[in-house]
Specification:
Blueprint lengths: L3 H11 L6 E3 L9 E2 L3 E2 L9 E2 L3 E5 L6 E8 L13 E5 L9 E5 L3 E3 L4 E4 L8 E2 L10 E3 L3 E2 L2 H9 L6 E3 L3 E7 L3 E2 L10 E2 L2 H11 L3 E9 L2 H12 L5 E5 L10 H7 L3 E6 L7 E7 L2 E6 L6
Parallel strand pairs: 6-7, 15-18, 15-19, 16-17, 19-22
Antiparallel strand pairs: 1-14, 2-13, 3-12, 4-11, 5-7, 5-8, 6-10, 9-10, 20-21, 21-22
């Protein structure tokens, strides 16, 4: 009998690789699979910038009293290098001129109106040099990659606002079982609430798939066949059939799939519960006949 690992291998062999792609917005990108590497279009950072709130001086400025001549904020072009004996108040993220030096605020003290005293020499490690994180053309996020908040933030920082990702699989789910009623109903004698539908819906949501149709179809073979045929008209990538996958009188999944042109690749798997499992394919659609027991 087919093992679980062998089933996984068969499923992989039936799914086209690589799949289709689409471009989406970053707000839709969570849990999607990136299909093109994210490359830098410029050096990162694109200019020398300050990593601190502190004071800009010349790189060779000694520790001494200096005049405070101005304040510089992020978002502006780099200021001119201050003359020897003077300093510019600088804020984190501000652009810096070449040959700049930085002094941390705690390494200074007031020295009178418009003057401060530098207690240390400039520290070159306080400058985030242009290209120190990555150079233009570097791959910062390989493909394929599962997009998470951190990687989506990275894409935004690179200006990649329409990443190319794998298209979400289109799924149709049909639930068999004449005894099933909606969960918000009180079952009559002999009936049970349908929990397969919500199980599959939540699983598909967690795996970022598109549920095209979900329907309870009972046990009538003719109606079941018709529902399968109509479902195929929506061109799903995956057809899920809950119940009807075993060998009982109402288990029509295997024979109906064959009538509709599917090739059956598997009918059982070596696992309990969950032994009845149909794996089939027709054109681009992969069908799964699943046990009706949600635990299975």
């Amino acid at each position: 009998m087919t093992t679980v690992n062998q089933v996984f291998a068969q499923i992989d062999s039936l799914i086209p690789q690589p799949g289709e792609t689409e471009a989406i917005s970053l707000t839709q990108a969570m849990h999607r699979v990136l299909r093109e590497p994210a490359m830098t279009s410029e050096d990162q950072p694109p200019f020398d910038r300050s990593s601190i709130d502190g004071y800009l001086v010349r790189a060779d400025e000694p520790a001494k009293k200096v005049r405070l001549i101005s304040t510089h904020s992020p978002g502006q072009s780099a200021p001119p290098l201050p003359p020897a004996g003077s300093t510019i108040r600088i804020l984190t993220g501000s652009a810096l001129p070449k040959h700049a030096g930085l002094i941390m605020q705690e390494d200074t003290r007031p020295a009178g109106p418009d003057f401060i005293e530098l207690l240390k020499k400039p520290d070159p490690t306080l400058i985030r040099m242009q290209g120190s994180h990555s150079k233009k053309g570097s791959i910062l996020l390989p493909a394929p990659s599962l997009l998470q908040p951190g990687s989506i933030t990275l894409l935004a920082s690179l200006g990649i606002t329409q990443p190319k990702v794998s298209r979400l699989p289109r799924v149709v789910h049909l639930v068999t079982g004449e005894e099933l009623v909606d969960p918000n109903q009180n079952p009559a004698h002999g009936q049970i609430r349908d929990c397969n539908s919500i199980l599959i819906r939540t699983l598909l949501t967690s795996f970022s798939a598109t549920l095209v149709t979900q329907q309870r179809v009972g046990d009538d073979r003719k109606l079941f066949r018709q529902a399968c045929r109509l479902s195929l008209a929506t061109q799903p990538d995956i057809l899920l059939l809950s119940g009807a996958s075993s060998v009982g009188d109402h288990d029509h999944a295997g024979s109906v799939l064959e009538e509709l042109g599917f090739t059956i690749h598997l009918r059982q798997v070596s696992v309990r519960p969950g032994k009845p499992l149909i794996l089939a394919k027709k054109d681009r659609t992969v069908a799964f006949g699943l046990p009706g027991n949600p635990l299975s």
